[in-house]
Amino acid sequence: PPLSNQQLLARVLTYGRIEGDLSVPPEDDTLEGTDPGTDANQVPLPPGRSRFLPDLWPSAYLFCVTYLAQPKDFGPVPPNYFVPGFITEYDLSDSQTCAKVADCSFTMVMGGLDILWRKSFQIAAEQMLPDGPTSSFVPTDPFDWPALNRQSATVSQAAAKASAQADYRTRMGLLTARMKGPAQAQASRTSPEAWSAYAAGYANNPPYSGAGANYLGLVLSEGLRYMDRLTYGPTRFGAGAANHLPEILVYLLFHQQGNSSGMLASAAANALRKQVNSSDADYAQKLQTALNNAGLTAELEATLKNIRLANTTEDSVTLATQSWGDLGTLLGNPGVVGPLADYIRNATDAVWKSWAKPSQDVDPVTNKITKLPSPRSNCIGYMQLYEYLTDQIGGG
Prior knowledge:
two-stranded antiparallel sheet; mainly alpha
């Protein structure tokens, strides 16, 4: 985990802001205009608002997000797209299916947690282990992967899976799905339950200011558990790796998941070039020295070069994953992770563009091709906000 409570709080706030813009889903009664209000005069909240109460000053930037789905926008569920046991068809006439689809989208929008539902994402991420592509993790249901983030020396796999199931049931119990609009153009609207139902469920002494805040907390906790697991270097780099990775590497592993192997290897390969941009020379030299001290061989250097020169991001990731047993040991070395993090952060855009080539992804609902941005801006933005918050909170 992070080194201090201040750093943990900074991680929570940074993660929520970078991945989800601190978006909060408004409760059902505020959308219906039936909420009783929040002050002594019982003034109703404007429709679309939440009872989320920020405790920071200046107050955090927040906005609300709800889920409105029309059947015409949904095609067949792609085969093997979701983890086993999730939905097999978008039946928006069924309230339980509506809530499941909304929860899936909420976790992606508010927490960047596509990996919770995408089978291929889970497999690719868990292949980034010392045994590389021989890793045998394949999810059998929606709870196998989140259980990995809950296991520890004192928490068994069975207990971790039961915990993941319990959190999912709690999350789903906070959602209300309604069909809205005329019969010829009905849409499913899903939002956290009304205050009256939420408060009653806790004998009028609920743990959060509303179901929206409670739901957001559960979503963010899934991502933070994953980041905590990634913070421990041996999780992705094997035995002997740094116990605590620099925060920018933790976020890169979280954000890029299975692509991280190719990106980390390509960054190291760029630093090993004979001709390095003068503005990168200092950081490159420090990384070169660290790699040599960690046991860089001619064979590994050739592998790194091949990864850097791969035609596509996918080819780069494939080569890196196949060699991750040795590469992970090298790049996760306690003496390497610091210079590697510094080089990734400070190298010029040209270095990043040479290996983080724009990818394309096909939206499973609209079938439209979307160009994905380079991860550089995400990683730098994350670190700038994390360091600012850590400094303001007083974590050093």
